[in-house]
Each structure stands twice: as C-alpha cells, then as structure tokens.
Amino acid sequence: MIGYLEGRHRELQLRMAGDSRVLMDHNMEIGATPAQVKKLPKHLREPQISTERTHLISEPLKKPRQRYVQKDGKCNVHHGNVQETYRYLSDLFTTLVDLRWRFSLLIFTLVYVVNWLFFGFLWWLIALIRGDLVHGDEEGWTPCVENLNSFVSAFLFSIETETTIGYGYRVITERCPEGIVLLLVQAILGSIVNAIMVGCMFVKISQPKNRAETLMFSNNAVISVRDNKMCLMFRVGDLRNSHIVEASIRAKLIRSQQTKEGEFIPLNQTDINIGFDTGDDRLFLVSPLIISHEINEKSPFWEMSMAQMEKEEFEIVVILEGMVEATGMTCQARSSYLDTEVLWGYRFTPVLSLEKGFYEVDYNNFHDVYETNTPTCSAKEQITKLRDEPLLPQLPLLSPKPKTQTFDPLDCLSELNPLSQDEKMEESDSGDRGENNGSAAALEEPPLTDGLPD
User: Is 66 helix (H, G, I), strand (E, B) or coil?
Assistant: First the structure.
C-alpha cells in the first residue's frame, strides 16, 4: 500500500513537470497499459520541445498577390475615369454584344416595345387628324385604317404591320397617302431594327469565348529537366471532338521591373519563347499537349534558381488562339500561373494510353504531377557546370621543355593516328627507323653514312 502511494505521488510530480517521455517509461515500470497512456492529455502525450536549445523561427508567409488574369481567362482590370464615353456609341453593335445577358435582353425588349409604341402613336395621330376616331362608324366614311378607333387598336396595328402578322381585321385604305408613306417608313425601319437585334442575339449566343470553356489548362506549371535542359512546362487540352483550327499558343511573364534610369514599371510584360522560332507554338490540339519553354540565355528564368524563385513575385499569362472548326470564328482562351503555382522539380503524369483500335485520354490525371530529380541551381549554373566538367580531363599535360612552333605539312598525318606523350619520347630516344611509322621525329634525323671505317 505504501509503495502504491509513493508511485502515485511520483506520477503526479512527473505530470506537473511535463515530461511525458519519462512518465511513459515509469508507467511501463509499474505495469501501465498503452491504453492508459493514450488517455493522458495531448500536451503530455506529445514530446515537448526544449525552447532553451531550439529557437523556432516562423518563416514569413507570402502575402496573397492580385492576379492580372484569372484562371478562367478573365482579365482582372477595371477601366475607371473614362471621360470619352461617346466612343462606346461609335461602335454600337460591339457595345450591345459585350453587354451582360440581363442588359441585352432588357435592351432587346425595350427597342421593340418603344418602336411599336412610336409607330402606334403615329397611326393614332393620323386617325385623330383625319377624324377617323369620331366619324369612323358613319356610313360612307372612308378611314385611313379600317377598324382603328382607339390608341390600343393603333398599337395593335403597328405590331401587325412590323411583324407582318396581318390578321386582316385592320387594313389600310388607298385613300390615305400619308398612311402609305408611314407604312413604307415603318417597314424599312422595322427591318433595320430586326437585323440589328437579331444579329446581336445571334453573335452573343455563338460567341467564340463560349468555345473556350472546353479548353483546359493545367492548374500548375512545372520546372524540370528535359533532354538535359531546364524547361518550364504546362499542359493544355481540348474536351471537344471538333478541333481548333490553326491553334497557336504564346506566353507572357508579368512582373514589376525597375529600369536602369530608375523608372518603375508595375506590370511589365516579357515574352516567353515557347517555340516561335521553331514552329512548336503551332499546335495540333487533338490530345492534351505539354507546352515546353527552354530556359536558355534569352529566357527570363535563366539566372533564377529554386531559392530565388520562391522569393520572386511574378505571373505567367498563357494565351491559346485558334479558329472554331464549326463556325470559323476566332477563339481565344487564357489562363495564368502565379509564382506559387510554378512547381520546381515536378513532371506531368501521362494521360494518353493505347487501347484496342484507339487512343484514350484520361482527364482524371490531367492536373496530376509527380516529383522528379531536378537540380536546385539555376539553368545558367547548370549549363556552366556541364561545360566545365568534360573539359577538365582533356587538358594537355605541361611539358618541362618548351617546344618551338614549326610548321610541317606532314604533321596532319600524326593527327590521324595520335600517339601518347610517352610513346613520342621513346621514339625520339630510339634510333630504330622501322618503328617511326612516318612520324616527324624520323624526318628530323640526319642521313646515314656508309658505315665504312675511315
């Protein structure tokens, strides 16, 4: 009993001290089960970090950046303080097409209603001036429009005239020249209104930007080694079976820059070459493609390492253009990648597989990436290292004796069958001509004498 009380007292002291690891060892000594250990509080189950020896330094988190282009392709730019608003009316058709659907439908309805009301008022005014509203029911009276006796009937006649419904109850008579002129004017203006409004609705419904909804861009861009070259890559794909004709792609790097003269450019655009000089920017977009940008001397990422990229703030805007096969209209799809969405040391997971008689694309893996071995240094440092390493073993050994530079036309023969430095030394020491094989040392030997005694 006394031993049990001593054990409980020691256990309470260990709890107050907060050393959970020693407490666990003590519980094992007194026969505590693991289930009893798990019932301890969380701060006792987890190992405590010694703050006297270890200093926790929280890394500063990057503040969220404002996108220049959204992931769905919408440009995050608002035009304010526009004084010359009349410029929008100079291109009225494009203005109507660019409006939102609710405003387009409202304008579409208002244009027709106002047009019908305006011409209905003119027909009622002609009937009022001619006296048809008062004497229309009298026998022998010929009105301008039969059965037009109020503004409502004039409004209905305006609708029937412009929409060419023609119910046959209200008709114009030949004894009304002003009505005939008004009929011609309404027919012409009505056709113009129909052409504009129906054209706007047709273009708005068949806008090519709706086709861009089925063009996909990968969620992330990656940087890894491809063919011994550092490359920036991203993936594009088309969900529809109808292809994009003459598809081309380009990319822009957007980041702040300060010139040598001290001028600050907040959103400077730098071109990223993704095959313009080789024609690789022209795509045959039948299956998902990985677009690659080689990081070379002309690339803005040439001197940027993995550590430097984590500190940089930039945005890569990708633009895919082409013509819709069904309509022939130009389509453009856009997306962007922030600096936090560029993954260093990753590759895209393959999505194309060969089935029986066809190729199958698995779009479940379209955005997936996997990690690969990639140097963390910049492309400039990597190229410099690759250039220096093969040169080191090929450096010639220094000769202790200086060699005079003499030109001999037979020296090119020695390049065809090069010999080592030791073999050349042995050939120069030996006087055997049969082993010289036409070398330059044999040609420099003096001619042999007769060998007869003096």
Answer: coil
